[in-house]
Amino acid sequence: MKLKPIEVPSCGAAILPHKTRSRRGAPFASSPASLASRRKTLTILGRAAAAERSLNETFSYSETLARQVLFFVEEYCSHVKGPLTGHPLRLAPWQRKLVCNLFGWQRTDARRRYRYVWLEAPRKSGKTTLAAALGLYMLVVDPEPGAEIVIAAADIKQAMICFSLATEMIARDPDLSSLCRVHKHVISYKDAHLRIVSSRAEQKHGENISCLIFDELHLQPSRVLHDALITSMAARNDPLVLYLTTAGWDPTSLAWEFHSYARKIQDGLIDDPSWLVAMFGAEPDADWTDPRVWADAHPGLGVSVAEDFLRQECARALQTPGFIRSFRRLYLNIWSEKSSVWLDVKQWDACGDTPLALDALAGRECYAGLDLSSTADLTALVLMFPDPDGGCTVLPFAFCPETTLVERTRKENAAYLEWHEKGYVIATPGNVVDYNAILAKIRELAETYHLVEIAYDRWNASMLINELTSDGFTCVPVPQTPTVMNAPMRELERLAAEGTLRHGGHPVLRWCAGNTAVEMSANGDIKPARGKSVDKIDLMVALLMALSRHLLRTTWGPTPLVPLSR
């Protein structure tokens, strides 16, 4: 389907082959110069965007193309949910600016300037509705031969949200209904298709995608699916990728990687003319209870989400502290951790800025913490080296059965495969934990470092501990009780706050630190709460056990003072 071009500077209607429609809305800008002078392009974190990158002969702006897309979206697409159901889709100013920038700016060879769009905004801001409409435009109007538009997400259910919006828009427009064939997971127009994909990335090599809509990228457990789909676009003449996301919680995730890159582009630290960045949200230290902050952070406030709704959600957060992080993340687009995080993550991250000097650790005394897993789970071994300044250096090791890496990457929203490739996770042969591999690793480490004690959780440890004891290692059980764990947890808080905890930025340890929730006893002692922690905390438990033994030996000497009963 081809839209007739709009004559510039008139506001004449662009039409589908079957009928003419009236043109609504004011024109955007008639030239690159007026465009640059009229706009504060997009908003980043509630502030005006950084100064516009200087334009040169490489790019030109076509109002005709920009207005053509606006016309299609606002004349042929409609609201399909909420009180505006059935009404034409009227774009908010920020959405119009994004569309005009994306489709108006062209390269000298007539291809789009922007190949990647990073749209990060709070929930209920209209991201997915806009993406559904643009997906239909790419299906029926964009000139790419044999267009393949793919909607991807962490799972089919999430991808179906955007796909269902597109199918309902088609159902409400007689022209689109007559032109498009809608199936369960595919919309077809001539030789072009719009469809969703499953999360099984290993099945997605060999695709030939022209436009990729990646919804809620922060939910992606790894980059496997993403990379498989992106590499499938190499043969396309003018590929387009739309990333849609709300703030996430994992700074080791793909979404955080792209979020950081987009911030640098928006702040002018990186010059990448192929990326169009639109980021909305509040500053992390902003008063999240202030409606003025909501208005600054949420582009859909008063349009796609009512202020009364946010007031109710804010009141809920004030009454239920555990909901505060969700409110800040979902409605103000502030990155956070998954649970009520025990440690200050900024302090934790600051302690990992300097890589560990492993050579300097050779021959030094250390305490090992060993948290053994079930047969197919994560096993943790952490060496804790007391430092002369009263701090400590941490050397972590994570073990996982080789055949479970893919499954754990998918199920636990954690980058096991990537961590393994980079050496942060040791894959043991088979589908269960290989205790022989762990035993061999401890023996290897003992040749380089002076292992004073091995602290361990008694659960499932008897066989390995017997082997270690036979080797001459001093092994001490450490119960996971508030009485025992309070001291090392408080000490770790102090070390992190003072910046004398040195962990080298190990991502698996950082993931476990971010997952760790706490449980407090009646007398105020705390311990790691496995049941309340939403993901693995094994490396943190191992570190705390090692630190516990160091504190006890420093205070009382080498006698094992930890009670053996649990």
UniProtKB/TrEMBL annotation:
- List the Gene3D superfamilies hit by this protein, alphabetically: 3.30.420.240, P-loop containing nucleotide triphosphate hydrolases
Q: Which residues form the Terminase large subunit-like endonuclease domain?
A: 271-550
Q: Which domain of life is it from?
A: Bacteria
GO MF terms listed in the record are: endonuclease activity
Q: Which residues form the signal peptide?
A: none
In what residue span(s) does the Terminase large subunit-like ATPase domain sit?
A: 93-263
Q: Which InterPro entries match?
A: P-loop_NTPase, TerL_ATPase, TerL_nuclease, Terminase_largesu-like
What is the name listed in the Swiss-Prot or TrEMBL entry for this protein?
Answer: Terminase
Kindly list the organism's lineage: Bacteria, Pseudomonadati, Pseudomonadota, Alphaproteobacteria, Rhodospirillales
